[in-house]
Specification:
single chain; membrane; transmembrane helix; three-stranded antiparallel sheet; HPP family transmembrane protein; mainly alpha; 3 strands; about 5% strand; about 65% helix; flat; 13 helices; about 375 residues
Length: about 375
């Protein structure tokens, strides 16, 4: 192409303004009263991050922002140098292209899964057709050859045997092979289980610091004290009722030692207790022997909680206690009220700690959407 043509195209085609990397100080933004409070930005400033810059990318309809951070002691001239700026812009292009690739990759994988599923269905239908159509024809052909005195090649070694005896021998051989295979599988499973007893050599979780341990102590002490006073208040109103305190020891352990664990969240606490105590009380109406009733009731509660995704260890303890008998549906209401008080207490105490947050999610909407999905949508969507 001639130089004049290139110059003409250069003058006609629009050019995007070259993108620049603009660095901003983080601390003044966090201390600006006109800016909304941002906990993540505040923590970044406390961690020593003094400068931040955002570079925008746009690929095939996918837009985003890549944020770069630097220490406050970093030389700003080095950050603003031409080579460093070009490096950051190129890195943004790479990151943006990877982000842009996610949706097409997901669609491609879904298409391949559908193709494999269609191939599997076609193969299954063909195999069923061969079995249904070819099976009777093959049996009729073998019977006709046998009646005519033509022994199939399959039975040349045993000319005196008939088809039924040959089939019986083959069936016996297949049964023996199947038994040997199952025996080998059981042996392998025993060896595998024995190896698992050695453990996976994973490191144990780190211990709490003194401050965190003191915070856990305070939370457990105040929550249990509140529940004891609540139980005394209920007992003063009616001496037949009181709070079953056993499961609450496990509950405060979860809320103050495993604060972010799924089993500690309010959804698991409320729904797990409601499911377990309901099943346990229903089991008391049966005529089963006491040990069978308590074992069966606890197993039903734990498995149902796992199936519904609301596993809560204290609820398993409550199921074991309530299946023993001597409790009514009023006790269930008292237990749920005690759990609500424990959740409120844990939220109030844990959230005063900068390093803790409780709850991490309420999750009731997700549980309803998963168990009762809307028409035309899949579970969990």
């Amino acid at each position: 192409m001639e130089l004049s043509t290139l110059s003409l195209l250069d003058s006609v085609l629009p050019h995007s303004k070259p993108q620049r990397v603009v660095w901003r100080e983080v601390v003044p933004i966090t201390e600006d009263p006109d800016q909304p409070f941002n906990l993540r930005l505040k923590l970044a400033a406390q961690a020593g991050i003094g400068l931040a810059a955002g570079v925008r990318f746009h690929f095939r309809g996918t837009q985003g922002l890549v944020v770069y951070m630097a220490r406050g002691t970093t030389d700003i001239n080095k950050l603003k140098s031409e080579t460093n700026e070009q490096y950051l812009l190129s890195a943004t292009d790479v990151i943006g292209s990877i982000v842009c690739l996610r949706n097409p990759r997901r669609d491609c994988l879904a298409e391949r899964r559908q193709a494999r599923e269609a191939t599997r269905r076609r193969l299954r239908n063909k195999m069923l057709a061969v079995i249904r159509i070819g099976g009777p024809i093959l049996r009729e052909m073998l019977k006709r050859e046998y009646d005519e005195g033509i022994v199939p090649v399959l039975y040349e070694d045993t000319p005196s045997s008939n088809i039924s005896s040959s089939m019986d021998s083959r069936r016996s051989a297949y049964s023996l092979a199947s038994f040997q295979k199952k025996t080998l599988s059981i042996k392998n499973r025993i060896i595998m289980a024995a190896r698992k007893w050695k453990g996976a050599n994973n490191d144990p979780p780190p211990p709490f610091s003194n401050v965190e341990a003191l915070w856990t102590f305070s939370g457990c002490f105040l929550t249990i004290l509140m529940l004891l006073y609540f139980s005394d208040f209920i007992n003063e109103q009616n001496s037949q009722y009181s709070l079953v305190l056993g499961p609450f020891g496990a509950l405060v352990t979860l809320q103050y030692s495993l604060t972010s664990a799924p089993a500690s969240q309010p959804r698991n606490v409320i729904l797990g207790q409601a499911i377990s105590i309901s099943i346990a009380l229903c089991m008391t109406y049966t005529r089963l022997e006491a040990n069978i009733r308590r074992s069966l009731g606890t197993a039903l509660c734990v498995s149902l909680m796992a199936r519904l995704g609301v596993t809560h260890p204290p609820a398993g303890a409550a199921a074991l206690i309530f299946t023993g008998g001597g409790y009514t549906w009023v006790h269930m209401g008292i237990m749920l009220a005690g759990n609500v008080l424990a959740i409120i207490s844990a939220a109030g105490i844990n959230n005063f700690n900068v390093k803790r947050q409780y709850p991490t999610s309420w999750g009731f909407g997700y549980w309803i959407k998963y168990v009762c999905p809307r028409k035309g949508s899949k579970k969990g969507d």
